[in-house]
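Students often ask what a 'structure token' actually looks like in practice. Rather than answer in the abstract, let us consider Roadblock/LC7 domain-containing protein, a protein of 144 residues. Its sequence is given first.
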Amino acid sequence: MSGVSPNQVQDLAWLLRGLGEEVPVIRGSVLLSSDGMMKAADGFDRASAEQLAALASGLFSIARSAGTKFDDSNEVRQVVAELKSSQLYISWAGYNSVLAVLAEETADPAVVGFEMARLIKAVRPFLHTAARPAAVPSDRNRAF
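Now compare that with the structural description of the same chain:
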């Protein structure tokens, strides 16, 4: 995959479509912020993409907590879940960004993981998500 031009930053769904075309056993994918907000999706309706984003964020967060407790690091490379008839892959995709991919049960994990890593490496700067600003309490929300 080649680099991304600045005018393509607005619509990252084309990257996910390309991943699905490269690996036909991928049923769909979602790019999300680490706090679970969907940034782009392919292969899912909006409601399903948002639900997968929330689930992937939770699983990724649990893996980070496990790493902090048992591995002296909160770095997570990938979380893989084997479901009844699907495989779910969740990978770090850059600053505050995560990539979740749902593949068929027959998918080769090495191929899916390799193609996800290749995509992320090729376009990582465009996958970063800026940190959200801290909420400023208004006068109405202040406790007296």
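One point worth highlighting: The chain has one domain: 11-130. Ask yourself how you might have guessed this from the sequence alone, and why that guess would often be unreliable.
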